[in-house]
Design brief:
Blueprint: E1 3-5, H1 7-14, H2 20-27, E2 31-33, H3 35-41, H4 50-60, E3 62-63, H5 70-83, H6 92-104, E4 107-110, H7 113-121, E5 127-129
Parallel strand pairs: 1-2, 1-4, 2-3, 4-5
C-alpha cells in the first residue's frame, strides 16, 4: 500500500511519535508528500534553515504532483461537505491533499480528525490515522 502523508503525519514521523513501521515505509518510498503538504510543513521553518528543511523533506519522502485537473474534484468535495455542514474545518490545502490522494489512488495518512469527517461523506477517500498501525 502507498500513502500520501498529510502535514500532521509528517510532523508525527519527524518527532518519532509513531510506530517505527512508518519510518520504515517512508525509507522504502511508500509514503509520499505533495506541494500543499510541503508548504504547510515549511511554515515553521526558520529563514536560515528553510532550504535545508525543504531539501530534507523532498529527499525523505516520495513526491506526488497535484493533478492538473484537481479543482473540479475540490469543488465536488467542498459542496458535498457543505451539504452536511461539515466544511468549516477543512482548509484549501486539505481539499487539495484530499483530491490529490483520491486522483492518485493513495491512502491519505494523517493524524487529523477532519480527514475522517471528509471520508464519511466522500467515500472515494481512503484514509488512515498514523497512530493506528496498519
Amino acid at each position: 500500500m502507498t500513502y500520501l502523508a498529510d502535514t500532521s503525519a509528517v510532523v508525527c514521523i519527524g518527532r518519532r511519535q509513531v510506530a517505527e513501521e512508518w519510518r520504515e515505509l517512508v525509507s522504502r518510498g511508500l509514503v509520499a508528500i505533495c506541494e500543499p503538504v510541503l508548504c504547510e510543513a515549511l511554515t515553521i521553518a526558520d529563514k536560515s534553515k528553510y532550504g535545508s528543511a525543504e531539501l530534507e523533506l523532498k529527499s525523505s519522502y516520495s513526491w506526488v504532483p497535484v493533478p492538473d485537473n484537481v479543482w473540479s474534484l475540490v469543488g465536488t468535495i467542498r459542496r458535498e461537505l457543505a451539504a452536511h455542514s461539515v466544511h468549516q474545518g477543512v482548509s484549501v490545502a486539505d481539499y487539495l491533499i484530499v483530491a490529490t490522494a483520491i486522483k492518485s489512488k493513495l491512502v491519505l495518512l494523517h493524524e487529523d480528525g477532519d480527514f475522517e469527517t471528509v471520508a464519511r461523506f466522500v467515500p472515494q477517500l481512503q484514509q488512515q490515522r498514523i497512530s493506528e498501525v496498519s
